[in-house]
Amino acid sequence: MAEHRFGGIKIHHLYKIFGPNPTAYVDAVQKGLTKAELNEKHGHVLGLRDINVEIPSGRIQVIMGLSGSGKSTLIRHINRLIDPTAGEVLVDGVDVVKMNETELRTFRRQQTAMVFQKFALLPHRNVLENTIFGLEVQGMERAKAVDVAMRWLERVGLKGFEQRYPNQLSGGMQQRVGLARALSNDAPVLLMDEAYSALDPLIRTDMQTVLLDIQKEIKKTIVFITHDLDEALRLGDQIAILRDGEVIQQGTSQDIVLRPADDYIANFVKEVNRGRVIHVEAVMTPLHSGAAPVGLAIVAGTTVEEAVRMLSSAPEGDARVVSPSGETLGLVTFRQLASAMVNSQEGVAARHDSTLSVAL
Ligand SMILES: Nc1ncnc2c1ncn2[C@@H]1O[C@H](COP(=O)(O)OP(=O)(O)O)[C@@H](O)[C@H]1O
Ligand SMILES: [Mg+2]
């Protein structure tokens, strides 16, 4: 793991306009010129408009949106594979946009690693040699590089496959190599652009589990791009939803499921298993003072689905929601939990703001 404390990523007022004379249109875009107007009247493409996203160190930020919404454009600004038309991208407090060539090269090599959808493995190198590639480029001593690579290959479940070639591996296994290679590099920022989008659903879920497991240990700042809502909700500590180059909502999984910013997002979240996303404290009746009642205690942060499971074996039919230190925050009934799992806003959204502030 990188030794210095990594401070996260801050993207402020980022604009990207594609075309021969992009800076000429920043003003107009800031004043409200739409993507369609910019395209029709001026022949330029609005890639990103006024993006503001702050990603704390060690968290997983998901960027979600349909194809063409600007996800790749956004993630490529973080290691400046794309230069912005306006705005700043602070990584660990340093503006990537202002770096010179040398600084940028060092930054990319030491601070960032990427995992791609098309695994980008070298076909004539075996698994070990593919994993080691970046370490070689960095000039790491061979024995040490093998050591590091073997450790990560084992961690992603590829022990015993070191000598195989990419064409002898399934898509899921190739993506594990891609992940091991990125992790070997030991950079604090991991950029994953639709890394799992080409995988079959079951393998994809496996890979999400691998990533979540490893993240508990490595605590990198991960920017994960997907067009899949279930993947976003499962992986994201924070989620930003893009449409036509704009962030139309950001928040936690629960924020997005409970309070979709508009019909477009509401439509996305309609089919979601709410019980896995919503936490008990969003459903409970808050208790501000008074004697703590007896009964089953459920810790804040527990999902509704899990709480239902706990409550169904409790005779009382209701439970206390407690903080991690054991302080009672509120009461929750089986009925409240059950209604929260149904696909409707009722009974949850109205109480959400006040209860969250109590619980968190
Ligand atoms: N180099 C480019 N030149 C012109 N337009 C581009 C370029 N790269 C991306 N775009 C446009 O920017 C928008 C966002 O693209 P992209 O970031 O690739 O979306 P996503 O990754 O969400 O599918 C699209 O309208 C796309 O056509
Ligand atoms: Mg893309």
UniProtKB/TrEMBL annotation:
Positions of the ABC transporter domain: 33-269
Example GO BP: response to osmotic stress
Topology term for the membrane: Peripheral membrane protein
UniProt keyword annotation of Transport present: yes
Enzyme class: translocase
Main location class: membrane
UniProt-listed Gene3D superfamilies: P-loop containing nucleotide triphosphate hydrolases
Name of one Pfam family that matches: ABC_tran
Any one Gene Ontology cellular component term annotated for this protein: plasma membrane
Catalyses which reaction(s): a quaternary ammonium(out) + ATP + H2O = a quaternary ammonium(in) + ADP + phosphate + H(+)
Record EC number: 7.6.2.9
Family matches, as SMART domains: AAA (SM00382)
GO molecular function, one term: ATP binding
The keyword Cell membrane is annotated on this UniProt entry: yes
Superkingdom field: Bacteria
Subcellular location: Cell inner membrane
Keyword vocabulary terms for this entry: ATP-binding, Cell inner membrane, Cell membrane, Membrane, Nucleotide-binding, Transport
Subunit composition and interactions: The complex is probably composed of two ATP-binding proteins (TmoW), two transmembrane proteins (TmoV) and a solute-binding protein (TmoX). The complex is probably composed of two ATP-binding proteins, two transmembrane proteins and a solute-binding protein.
Similarity field: Belongs to the ABC transporter superfamily.
Name of protein: Quaternary amine transport ATP-binding protein
Taxonomic lineage from the root: Bacteria, Pseudomonadati, Pseudomonadota, Alphaproteobacteria, Hyphomicrobiales
